[in-house]
Amino acid sequence: MGPQTFSKKGYMNFIHIIxxxxxxxxxxxxxxxxxxxxxxILRHDVDYSPQKALELAKIDHSLDVSSIFFFLVRGHWYNFxxxxxxxxxxxxxxxxxxxxxxxxxxxxxxxDQEKQRQQLLRDFSLMRSEFPHAYPAFSWHVPPPLAxxxxxxxxxxxxxxxxxxxxxxKAKYVSDSSLRNSYEYLIxxxxxxxxxxxxxxxxxxxxxxxxxxxxxxxxxGEIVRSLISDGQFDLQEKTDYLKTFPLGLPSKVLxxxxxxxxxxxxxxxxxxx
Length: 273
What we know:
The chain has ten helices and eight strands. The protein has 273 residues and is α/β, with parallel strands linked by helices. The chain has two domains: 8-206, Alpha-Beta Barrel (TIM Barrel), CATH 3.20.20; 216-272, no CATH class. Helix 7 (183-191) links the parallel strand 7 and strand 8. Helix 8 (216-235) runs antiparallel to helix 10 (251-272).
């Protein structure tokens, strides 16, 4: 087997390795840090693309693994209440996956616990106003220090905090965020035999890409590519756009976006030397 990278094929290979090592993908209710069984909570934070989240849900469903998807209601990159986002959310839920809140704390609230709790409740209520089946759990988006200090933040009653002691400190927490951890590092978490309980955070945009990735620059390129690609759903409702691009932007045009951004990053790095 050659070296693996962040890609759809790499994702499926990663899941197969975890299963081969005797781990079971479990729901939050099934997770038991007192048992000796190997358990994984697979968490997907949807930072950029509901459409990629749906694609990843289809893969998880085909592999028969449990996972939970967390969506932003205060995202900069997509509108949770928009038609196309809701279509993806509804389809993911129909496959049996819980939909939780990816909570983006307003920066000005800092470590004010009461303000954060009240905002959490408002955001979760807002999510449920559009999607009544919202699962009572949340993950922090760019968590402030308050969220990462063990026992410091007390979540509102009835809402499970993915950074609470049970899920964050009683399990090994590992994430693909910004590709800070290599593919090999992620796999070693499961091959080492040292971690029987794992919370694994895998972002759809890190894996469902136009080309295998190994760098943050490539990830930024794929993020921008996905935003433009997803934006075509809206453009295709406009007559003028359809006259100009009846089949949408060609893939070869979209694929150039990542290459341009990687090239820009390489030039910037060379200038800094």
